[in-house]
Amino acid sequence: MDREELLNATPEDSGAQKKQESPLVSLEKDLEFYSDTIKEVAIEIMVEGISNHPIFIAHQHVVSIGELILNREELNTEWSIQASTLEEFVEKGIINKEKKESFLKTYKKPETFMCVFVVVPEGANFIYYPYKKG
Fold first, then answer.
1. Residue 91 CB partners (closer than 8 Å, separation 6+)
2. Where is the region Disordered (predicted)?
3. Is residue 6 part of a domain?
4. Of 15, 44, 100, 108, whose CB has the highest number of CB atoms within 10 Å?
């Protein structure tokens, strides 16, 4: 699923006065706002040799993977962000060891895109979001 599909994935208007906005609209706004910080953390993870494949977890609840880097309550935003790595995702079984190679084939250049594991009540999915230019 690409970014556009996720952002436009809203429930059908069932006669309600106001169409429910997808939570991913607020996620895009927050990722735009967080972009520079996330990129700095991604570069740090790679430069320090922790991993060549940083993964960021976007959530609105509590998740038990990665390290909290951006707290929505402190920043008055909709989403919190945790920093993690491909290795931790494999270790915790979120990415099956057998699927690691196919995941790496789709993993986009971490200097250009943030890999975000979006956790919502309905489930979770990976998206790649481009960093802001300049």
1. none
2. 1-22
3. no
4. 100
